[in-house]
Amino acid sequence: MSNSNENSSHDEVMEQLKALGYIDPGAGSSIWQAVLARIFGLKNKIKSVFKKSSSTRSIEDRED
Amino acid sequence: MEKKPNIIFVTFDNGRADHLSFNGYGKKTTPFLDSLAKKGVCFKNAFSTGPGSPLSFIGIFTSTYPLDHGGYSYVDRPRVLFPEALREAGYTTVGVHSSPYLADYFGYNRGWDKFLYLNYFKKNTAAASPISPGLRKETAKAKVLKKTAESHSWLKKRIPFLAVIFRIIERTLLFVRKLIKDSLHFRPAFFIAEKINAEVETILDGVTERPLFLWVHYMDSHNPYGLFGRTGHGLVRKVKYYICDWAGFLFGDFPPLLRIFVPLLKSTYDDSLSYVDENIKNLLDSLKQRGILNDNAIVVITSDHGEVFLEHGEYGHPQMLYNPNIRIPLIFYSPNGLDAKKVEKPVSLIDVAPTILDFAGAKKPESFRGENIFEGERDVIVQASESEGDLTGHAFTGIAMVRGGYKFMLYKKEKSLFPVNDAEEIKSVYNEKRDIADEMEQRLAKAIPYMDNFYQHE
Question: Which member of A12, A29, A33 has the closest CB to residue B155?
Fold first, then answer.
């Protein structure tokens, strides 16, 4: 089989890189990880907003 | 006018120097290369330009350092591939390989009369791919991959135990998927050496012009080791291949678990080196029969980088600058032309292309940084650079210099110095030999205009 080519596509090359372990074969399937990370990220964001607003309040209180 | 010699350039992936028997390895892994090393010029301290195919082959083919000219993701001007210069000098140039990083997609197809990139993932569709060579970063899939990778890193940093548990679950599921896929439609990661040789035979049947430059690259000593054993090389090799393939897939990210398999991984890796050795012999025998390997032909044999088996905590060929990862074999042989000798001076793969061009009487391109390897002694520089698998996002991870019996390393902001023949490279003598280290650091700053970047990398 001779598959000489001078025009390899992105997917062909990437599939081979995946087979050789250069591209994590799990990366595409871990969308659920992404979702979880986003949920935790959001939780932290909300927390930080609360922290920020409470600290702001305390400064205002002191000024009063 | 003297007749130009045919030049045969043989490379193989992952050729760790100290696992080859002509470098004193305990096992007889490479009997044929041992004989060539004895008959030719064998460089005992040869170093790659970086610990990975993209970083190394850019040094081999363009005689530049990987992070010169903005990086190594795509071979473009001002870089010149040495087959381009050979072609200008009247050579017919033929290249056969099965490595994705050396595909036309990354710009390695310039300068060849025949360039054969063998890939089992080639889609056999009638329509040619509309994608032009080069990187295509912004596909929807690439965006999703990037986001999920970012999320995994995020999780790893903030809730590490959860990231590990997820990873184990994910790996197990992927392993089941792999088993199903492999049993239904197995596609090997690369063409094994026997098949590469068969392709070389076919291609050479149609090439009668001389002088000839032939480049052949073998992948067999790359992970998955022992792929050749999957079919037709005995049951023991078959079992070894499967265990190594599965262990690497499941535990590649978990060094404590992978450590159990290291003896088997090393043994199968050694089998692969022997298999490459046997096929280099078959190739050269065939070239002799064809009259290509004649009395004044030049044969150059080398590898792109080494391999580590958890000696420094990691497996494979990560971006580390320890010797097992960057020391490679290098042999020049000519049946009638070169006096046999062993050379101890440190040399770099950056000097291979200029040397080949000198043998060919070809003009050296201005962009080349190397010189003829047989003349003088130069500082050897090796660069490490982390990037994504598709070669996006080059980092200035580390840089090393070999000179005067020592190796200086600046790796992730940490400086160290080792005697070059220190096999362990655990105890740095940086503080004891500060003057040597400082001098090497200054020489690096002079040689590498973008040296400052290496001080920034975390």
Answer: A33
Average the pLDDT over A30-39 and give the result.
63
ipTM strictly over 0.95? no
Same domain for B85 and B48, yes or no, is yes
Q: Render pLDDT for B402-440 as a digit per residue (tens, 0 to 9).
A: 999 999 999 988 999 999 989 889 999 999 999 999 999
B142 within domain boundaries: no
Q: Is B445 on the interface with A (CB under 8 A)?
A: no
Of B404, B214, B384, B387, the C-alpha closest to B305 is B384
Q: Which domain holds residue B316?
A: 7-121+190-232+263-372
pTM: 0.88
Task: Establish, for the pair of chains A and B, how many residue pairs have beta carbons separated by less than 8 Å.
Answer: 138
Closest CA to B314 of B327, B325, B326: B325
Number of domains in chain A: 1
Q: Per the structure, how many domains does chain B have?
A: 2
Structure tokens given for B340: 């046999």
**8 Å CB contact between B229 and B237:** yes
Show the domain range for A62. Answer: 29-64
pLDDT over 50 (residue A1): no
Say if CB B406 and CB B420 are below 8 A apart: yes
H or E segment to which residue B131 belongs: none
> Does the pLDDT value for residue B123 go beyond 80?
no
